[in-house]
Amino acid sequence: MVEKLDPRQLAEIAAQAAASKLATDVVAIDVHEQTIITDIFVICSADNPRQARAIMNEIDHACHDAGADPTTIEGNDEFRWVLMELPGVIVHIFLAEEREYYGLERLWNDCPRIELPDLEEAAQAEQARVAVQEPPQDAASLIVGLD
């Protein structure tokens, strides 16, 4: 049986998963004293919808592996703002312009930030994994019999 994670542990898992897919500006905000909907917000940015989808999938897999599947995932039709509801944690994955527009950090500015573990290591591991992948071949070498 999997041990039940507290929201802080789950927020760290989500933040590390996001960082492993090169999410930027990953922050965690303790909102438990201000709202009853959740304990922690994890907020991160993606460069484009494809990366937002990859971040969402990685968080989903990491949390599933930890025994805490998301109960709700919203916004995964256009991937401009994806919201993932986990036990005690809501993860927001934004495209940069959406994050600036909605300004969740400004809205919850009076709530304390949660210190996250070093996320740089997760990002570097992903960059190293991508760097060692086989380089793409040119189109001519993929077509048999062009010699």
UniProtKB/TrEMBL annotation:
Localization per record: Cytoplasm
A Pfam family that the UniProt record links to this protein: RsfS
Keyword Phosphoprotein: no
Keyword annotations: Cytoplasm, Repressor, Translation regulation
InterPro entries xref list: Iojap/RsfS/C7orf30, NT_sf
Subunit structure: Interacts with ribosomal protein uL14 (rplN).
Family: Belongs to the Iojap/RsfS family.
Entry function: Functions as a ribosomal silencing factor. Interacts with ribosomal protein uL14 (rplN), blocking formation of intersubunit bridge B8. Prevents association of the 30S and 50S ribosomal subunits and the formation of functional ribosomes, thus repressing translation.
Stated name of the protein: Ribosomal silencing factor RsfS
Organism: Varibaculum cambriense
